[in-house]
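Limitations

Structures in this collection are predictions, not experimental determinations, and the ligand pose is part of the prediction. Treat each record accordingly. The example that follows, with zinc ion as the small molecule, is included so readers can see exactly what is and is not provided: the inputs are given verbatim, and the output is the predicted complex.
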Amino acid sequence: MKKYVVLVGVVALIISACSQTPNPGPEQDVVYKNLDTTANPGKDFFLYANGGWIKNNPIPAAYSSWGIGNLVTEEIRNQLKKINEDALKAQAEKGSNTQKIGDFYASGMDSAKIEKQGLAPLKAQFEQIDQIKDVAGLLNVIAAFQKMGVGSFINTGVYQDAKNSEKIALHLWQGGIGLPNRDYYFNTDKKTSDIRKDYAEVHLPTMLKLSGLTENDAKTAAKAVYEIEKSLASQSRKLEDLRDPYANYNKMAISQLDALSPTIKWSPLFTKMNIKKVDSVIVGQPEFYKEVDRLLKNRPIADWKAYLRWNLISSFASYLNKDIDNENFRFYGKVISGKKEQLPRWKRVLDTENGLMGEVLGQLFVKEYFPAKTKKRYEKLVEAIRETYAERIQKLDWMSAATKQKALDKLKKITPKVGYPDKWKDFSSLEINRDSYVGNIIRANQFWYQYQINKLGKPVDRTEWDMTPQTYNAYYNPSNNEIVLPAAIFTIPGMRDEEVDDAVVYGYAGASTIGHEITHGFDDQGRQYDAEGNLKNWWTKADEQKFNQGAEMMVKQFNDYVVLDSMHVNGKATLGENIADLGGIVLGYEAFKKTEQYKSGKKINGLTPQQRYFLGYALGWLGSQRDERLANQILTDVHSPADLRVNGPFANLPEFYEAFGIKQGDAMWRPEQLRVKIW
Ligand SMILES: [Zn+2]
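Predicted complex:
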């Protein structure tokens, strides 16, 4: 994925490559106006490119970061708000999309009703927990909770079999913990230890008390929950270890799964979870399910009731009454992400609605803001990048002819999905009303659960999108060998088509989005899948070795970056994204060289076309983030921090050195033998 956050909404203006190069004044120049001209591009290019904007745009209290993605999202939210308010007033037919949007929004905005209802909408679920007597009873409740989106140590996924992209498979993955990932339970630095202490001693007992337990019972329950989670975390894999597609592929017959965790009777459990047509399961981390079994044998049933109680209240905390909502925000919003205050309610309701019914809003959005003409323009840019990639592969000095042929075949077969899906998801079976906000969320979760389960045993639908058009993000899916580029990702906030020159468009959209996503098909992970989307080696031994040498250099380069005094970037975990960033920049630049603007060499506001290209790429990472959020990113995210997504790859490029006169002795300069060159 391109960005580290999934952002949502509707866009006002779309940018694209234009035939005539515009010549904006300094105030209207989308790259010039962000510069910090007091910064030295050879010392910290990110600061030079974006520092002016960052100085003038401090992070608002309700955000953990603030940058270009937020600006796009704010525009989108305002559009969505209008769509929702119109739906709210419309006397829409029951069951229509307009009725669903309007009623969802109404139920979420009615904070008086939410306050009055308290935990009443979850009464049946709390009773189910109270009645658990044994492991069989526990698993029954877990099955029921799964269907409504309440997580636990059973973590299923329904998607393509990595080794047979024609088949949909049931997956079991590690999960079931409340801190962002396993490292939070074990790392010994002060930041992480403080978060852990707060979680165990404040957040868990407070939430359990708010779920209706006495203070003492809540303390005992919190201790049990923490111990269970710590055990689960101890047998969970690290971020970098989850990126090995072979190690996380363990196909098992149900009988093997029964042998792995004999305390769980898997077939009856799956039946209760509405999963019927499976005879095998792909287990990501078998050791995790072994640990689950050990815990089920050893922990008293009271501990599991506490664990389910916690998962239930935590799953719905943002949609419940103020006390619960606030404590949930205090921990996940403030302590973990560094936010100072909550977003206004309407923004939160819209974000939730967008997450649950995004394609309903997306249909309305693209009709108005992403015309066929714009879609076509970006489809053309995709082909320009693809063509350039083919030329580069042919010229690679480290790859054999045999592997080149396979790489070119894979490149040719990449399916680009641009803007929005051809076919929209059908929400007709989803019921939304104004009775209860949590009730709507539960029914929407059930809808999505069943939507996924229904895929089992059916042919793969390769037209499906996993992001909505109004999402400021993009992805490569190895099983479909496809790049998916939602309409919103091409937006530059507040700008119109004719105001942006090719240099910026090729850097912003061509490199940081299109080139980046295509390169994912050939990063350390993506390259292991063939043209048909199957995990199958198509490389010669020697070529694989040479690729790995380049990759190793990149791991080292990023491991050496230290942030927040003592945390270093995880070079292994971020490798795929770093390769995609570097590849995207190289491809975007080569493609840009074919344009009129590049050939003309004409300066705009004193900046050459080459300079504007690199600034256009840096524009994609415009913004800043709080320390808390940065620390969280280092531990949980496969993307490097934004400044290093600019400075890291640029430091490998002679074209960048040439554009800005970078010389030996500059901080951005790296000796030639250390410069990473892969694609
Ligand atoms: Zn990516």
